[in-house]
Amino acid sequence: MKRLVCALITTNVFTLLVLKITSPNNGYCVPHVKERKACPTDPAISVGMETTKPAEVAQATTKLTGSTTLIYSYVTEELELNYSAPHLPVIFVVTPTHTRETQKADLTSMCHTLMHVPRLVWVVVEDSPRKTPLVTRLLSRCRVSSVHLNTITIPMNLSVTLNTSSSSHGLTNSTNTTIVAVHHRGVAQRNLGLGWIRRHCLTRPCRGVVYFGDDDNKYDLRLFVEMRKTVGVSVFTVAFAGGLLFEGPYCSSSGNITKWHVVWVPSRKIPIDMAGFAVNVEVLMKNRYVWMGRMEGGQVVRDGFLESEFLSQFVTRKDLECRSYEKEILVWHTKTAKPNIANEAVEPSDPNFEI
Known about the structure:
The protein is an alpha+beta fold. It has helices at 80-83, 103-114, 133-141, 187-200, 221-227, 281-286, 306-311; strands at 4-10, 15-21, 28-31, 49-52, 62-65, 68-71, 90-97, 120-127, 145-151, 159-163, 176-180, 208-212, 218-219, 233-235, 238-239, 246-251, 257-261, 277-280, 321-322, 331-332. A 9-stranded mixed β-sheet has the order 5-6-9-8-7-12-18-14-19, sandwiched between helices. The protein has a 3-stranded antiparallel β-sheet with strand order 15-16-17, with no helix packed on it.
């Protein structure tokens, strides 16, 4: 039986942990995208792993493949016990992002939060015709297992085809679904992230949950502990949403919803913010033709109803799992203020600085 050993490598940043597997070749399990092998310590996150020598560990953090950038790294010391427990469901966090003055600051803040969450894959999707160097560099430094994708926000009423599998990922099944796109920012990006997760989970065990986490929100680490328990669809109360200090469900001690604190269109089928729910991967795989931004029949969903219409295609209010934490907020729908750069017209900053 293989035994887990931790080898410490000290850098000028902080101490990293590399998970070593005692095996006949005494190799280290590190990522690689050419060989589609499962890492012995982390079978659920198995997009490309191979065994290599300790000397190659420092160069193995970042690998590129096709149109998808797969970035893997290691974990901080405090997460050693959690990360070495492969029984934990994986959390897939889908984050749409777009170019703006505060993009790097927001993504850096989110990266530093997610670094403390074991067994998590960060699916970052840029609203851009190509992957930008800024986001590529940031993800290469961020010590979180991540996937880097990109797609533009599509004009209203344009039909597009989403592919739920890809031969470039070694899959044998391929399904094309034509949907009517919507112009709401983030919808096309979330759908692309959903497509990647479904494609990834077609040919491998994928026990986990999917969460849509915007890059300018703030997250308590206990939120991820709660969402990992999701069996079907779980919901949370979100601060600064719906024109209220907080919006969402009140939970009983048994996890049932006792009432909703909602003012903006409380008649919505499921009146929840984008940051206020998580979905089990199995549910999304069973409902493979459900996408964000359209209702059954192909009608375009108007802004403000995206979450409700998406969820109501496979769950009802009575089936929701209430996971608000003892009347304590665990996620804040914050929005980073646009910086005041009026004096740039007077004295322009050096454009070679990455902000």
